Amino acid sequence: SKTLGNVIDPGEIAATFGVDAFRYFLLREVPFGLDGDFSTAAMTARINHDLADEFGNLVGRISALASQKDSGILTPAAYRPQEEGLRRNALAASKQATESFQFSVALTELARVFSDLNKKINDDRPWEASDDKRKETLATCAVDLARAIFLLSPYMPNLAGTASSRIGCSDWFSDPRKLFSDEQVRAGKDWKVTPGAPLVAKIEIPRRQAPDTEGQ
Known about the structure:
Strand order of the largest sheet: 1-2
Oligomer: single chain
Helix content: 55-70%
Mean pLDDT: 89
Largest sheet: 2 strands, antiparallel
Distance between the termini: 8 Å
Structural class: mainly alpha
Shape: globular
Low-confidence stretches: none
C-alpha cells in the first residue's frame, strides 16, 4: 500500500530468494490478474514444501538411486505409462491451464505430479526391488518428471534447466511432441543422470523477521 508505506521491494526479495522462486510463489499463490497477499513467511513455507521437499527431493532421489544402482543410467524403454491416472490428468490440466493463462492452476497441478511421484517411489521402494522393477519405477518416475519439468520451465527456467540436466532429459526439450509421446520416449536412448547438491536449499528465516512483511 502506497498510503500505508508498507511496500515490498521486489529487487530485494529476488536477491534473497532467487528470481525463479519469487516468480513461482507469485504465480502459484495469486490468480493471474487478481490481487493477492504476500509475506516472507508464506513464501518460505511454499519454497520449502513445494520446491525443496517435493520437487527438489524428487530430482535428488531419482538421480541418486540411478547413480547408486544402475551406473547413472535411466532406461526410458522401461517406462510404463498410466493410461488414466492422477499424473497423466494433472500434466494435461497443467498444460491447458498455462495456455489459458490460469497460472496458479497450472502450478498447482504440477505440485500434484511431484507429490504423486514421491509417493510412487515410497510405495515401490526401488532401493530394495528387483533390477527390472527398480528400472521400471525409476524410468516411469523420470519420464513423468521430465514432462512436468518441461511444463514448469516457462515459470522457472533456471531451476528447470538444472533439473533436466540432473536426470538427463534436456535433449528432449527441443521437441516436446516426442517427450509427450509414450512410444517415442520408450524407443529413445538411455538418459544419464548427474547427481549433485540438493536442487533447492531449504530456507530458514529467524522468527523475529517473519512479522516484518506479514500480510503485505
